[in-house]
Specification:
The chain is mainly β. The protein has one domain: Beta-galactosidase, Chain A, domain 5 (Distorted Sandwich), CATH 2.70.98.70. The chain has one helix and 18 strands. The termini are far apart.
C-alpha cells in the first residue's frame, strides 16, 4: 500500500516516512519499512521498537555523535545497532565515507491488519545489495491485543552462504521486568541466544555499555516469541 497516512487508536501509518505503529492498552510497537528517496542516515529497515507501559524495552542504539571516530559512526548507524536481521554481521547497505551509504535498501511491500485478537504488520525490503542481487528480507510482526506477547517471523531469500543473524537490543530492565525472547529456525529447532556487548546513546554525545541478544541460523527463517513471563 502506498501513499497512505492513517492514524487511529490502534494503528498509525506514516507511509511517506516508512513508519508503522501498532498500539494497544499497554504497548506500542513501531516498525520502520521505508523507501529511500534521499540519502539514508541509518541501515535500519524493518527495525522493530517496543514500548511497554511507557518503557522502551527493545530499542535502537541511538545516535551518539554526528562527528566522531569512523568506528562509532559505523556502529550507531549500522544494522547491528537495530532490531532487525543481518547476514553474517554485514549491514543492510554498504558503508561509504562519513554519512554515505551505498546499495540503499528499499521497501518492496507493506500490509497491516487487525483481528479480534491481533494487530499485525507485514513488510518486505530489498537489501544487502553489496552481497548479491535480489536479496529480500520479509518480516511479519504479530502483537496479541492487551497481552505482552509478540510473535515475529523473519525470512531472508539469498544465496550468499552467510548465516542469518537476528538482533535484539534490549533495555537495562528488559529481563528484570520479566521479558524473555525465544526463537526457532524454519525446522522448529530452538536457537541458542547469544548475549553480545552493545552500546546505547540516550543523549547526544553520550554513550554507555548495553546488551543485545543474537540468534543465528543457516536456515532462511527465524520464528521469534517475545513475552513477559
Amino acid at each position: 500500500r502506498e501513499g497512505v497516512e492513517l492514524q487511529r487508536k490502534d494503528l498509525a501509518v506514516f507511509d511517506s516516512g516508512g513508519f508503522y505503529a501498532l498500539r494497544d492498552r499497554d504497548s506500542l510497537s513501531c516498525v520502520r519499512c521505508g523507501k529511500h528517496r534521499t540519502r539514508p542516515a541509518q541501515a535500519d529497515n524493518l527495525h522493530l521498537d517496543l514500548w511497554y507501559q511507557g518503557r522502551n524495552i527493545l530499542r535502537d542504539a541511538g545516535t551518539y555523535r554526528y562527528n566522531t571516530d569512523p568506528e562509532w559512526v559505523a556502529y550507531f548507524n549500522g544494522t547491528l545497532a537495530h532490531n532487525t536481521v543481518s547476514l553474517g554481521g554485514h549491514d543492510q547497505m554498504l558503508k561509504g565515507p562519513r554519512f554515505i551509504w551505498l546499495y540503499w535498501s528499499q521497501a518492496l511491500q507493506t500490509d497491516w491488519k487487525e483481528t479480534d485478537d491481533l494487530l499485525e504488520f507485514a513488510g518486505s525490503i530489498r537489501a544487502f545489495g553489496q552481497l548479491g542481487r535480489n536479496i529480500v528480507h520479509r518480516r511479519r510482526v504479530r502483537k496479541y491485543k492487551n497481552r505482552p506477547i509478540w510473535k515475529i517471523e523473519d525470512e531472508v531469500i539469498h544465496r550468499t552462504g552467510l548465516p542469518l543473524w537476528q538482533v535484539w537490543n534490549i533495555s537495562e530492565d528488559f529481563e528484570s521486568l520479566g521479558f524473555r525472547i525465544r526463537a526457532t529456525d524454519e525446522n522448529g529447532s530452538e536457537l541458542e541466544p547469544v548475549r553480545r556487548k552493545a552500546w546505547y546513546s540516550g543523549r547526544y554525545g553520550e554513550k554507555e555499555p548495553s546488551a543485545a541478544i543474537l540468534f543465528q541460523t543457516h536456515t532462511a527463517t527465524i520464528h521469534t516469541e517475545i513475552q513477559r513471563t
